[in-house]
Amino acid sequence: MSNVKTLPSWRALTQHGVMAQANHDEVARLNVLTHLNLHLSSRVIPGLRQVYEKHVHPAFVKDHGREPETRHEVRKVMMEDGYCQLWSALRRNTMEMRHQTGRAMVLRQAGVLSNKVEQLNKGCDTLQLDPKIEVPANINQVDIHCQPGCYYQEYFDQDVTVAASYDVGLFVTTAGLLGALSDGGGQAIANWLKTEHPNFKPKRILDLGCTVGHNAVPLAQAFPDAEVIAIDVATPCLRYAHARAKSLGVDNIRFVQANAESLPQYADESFDLITSAMFWHEASHQMLPKALKTVQRLLKPEGLTIHLEQPQYHGKSVFEQFMRDWDTYYNNEPYWGPMHDLDLAEQLDKAGFDGSAMFEIGVVAKVDEKIFGKSAAGDSGEDYGRAPVWNAFGIWKNKQ
Amino acid sequence: MTSTNTSTHKTSADIDILDLAGTKAKGQRPYFLADKQVEQVLSIAMAVATELAVTRERLASLEAVLTEKGIISADAIEQFAPSAKHTAARSLDTQEYLARILRIVQQDKEEISQDDKSMEQLQRELTQTD
Ligand SMILES: C[S@@+](CC[C@H](N)C(=O)[O-])C[C@H]1O[C@@H](n2cnc3c(N)ncnc32)[C@H](O)[C@@H]1O
């Protein structure tokens, strides 16, 4: 067993001020599920390519007299294969168990958590909730990634359990590869800015769809003189995010409840840097162009906008596209596929940028290697969309 | 549109933790195996496997503590009779345990009464551009 890599325990996560407390068995359960995810990605997933190459693909070619042309054709035949069905059943079930485990843990301390959050948020003008906001159509009909209650459900007055459970479970879904504060993505972006653009010193930063603020915090810490505005539509997430940041000693983030579509409260050209992490794949064909136009409107000349996402499908084999697209249909992510099909440069163009100036960079989560080991690439097996190996796309406004 | 004010209870004391913890995610649940019931049994088996792993870890913790401290003799566990308080705590434990491993049944029940849409259906709606 000596060549088997061990994972850090869930206990390695930083216990910030509003982190739910885990008892002995809850930690054990979270760790088992983390290992189960790793098992599926490193030991079960490789079999799918074999199934495809040995059986499914040859059978398709024989039946049709041609190669499969789209991921949808691949999906149709793969989902009839017993091994693929078994993997799918296990993957779906593991996700559901992760949610039940996180929820059971935070629900039993729901009152304590909401009190802690209220105490930390009391009297702060850096938390701006809008009681009249409506859940946008892009997330109101389905509980994204099988997360019951989605981002916004409150089970009682001042409830933050959906946010607390989200924070608890990021570790499980990513096999611990996001680091002690699940902020490996935000840290990687901050690090990239500092090393590649040391003279870029943004004063006003906007983060779209911040959820629990985990990736906004490292940006705020990297630019302590900047004012960061982190927006989201989900009340429990914003309350929790604000308290979380405060407990970490970060006070230059303003958490604002707002829909990314228009943001009329902010003036044209009022931000130097606009970011998001894993945001666009939960949008829609209606919302995404509006929000990108808003980004274009809000960005100062010479300002930068940069977004962490999983890579686009273009140029990938239909098999890899099928693998990456699994979550679209089977993990309640209906816009995942359509978003990854978009020509992002064209979208930027339509939003008023010069799309030809778009750049893309590969980003790997930046974590404390002493605890979390070497970063994701190659380590956890190819996980087709779950591993913290991203593609960031960005553009400088009107810059030659 | 749905309002974000989704709270249905006044305080944290009013929530049913067992039901809420295992509740299903909105959106039709796909099944992958040829037989739905077989897949439900698989789900139960995986949950039981998880719980067994948790128990193994707890026993390992216990053994380590006891060995380190030299507290009990080998037959002390065999001789132990739980008190009324212990019995009540275990009953609660067992109920939580069962709610966990039978989650799939609860969710199937919930799906019967919910009108969830498929990802295909939602994708069509989300990709409409007026
Ligand atoms: C996948 S999460 C983003 C995760 C997070 N940014 C990170 O760093 O990992 C998507 C977030 O976007 C929010 N969201 C979805 N639609 C939105 C909209 N139209 N305007 C603002 N926020 C939105 C959701 O509430 C959710 O918190």
UniProtKB/TrEMBL annotation, chain A:
Gene3D superfamilies: Vaccinia Virus protein VP39. It comes from the Bacteria. Residues 205-303 form the Methyltransferase domain. InterPro entries: Methyltransf_25, SAM-dependent_MTases_sf. Pfam families: Methyltransf_25. Keywords: Methyltransferase, S-adenosyl-L-methionine, Transferase. This is Methyltransferase domain-containing protein.
From TrEMBL, chain B:
This is Uncharacterized protein.
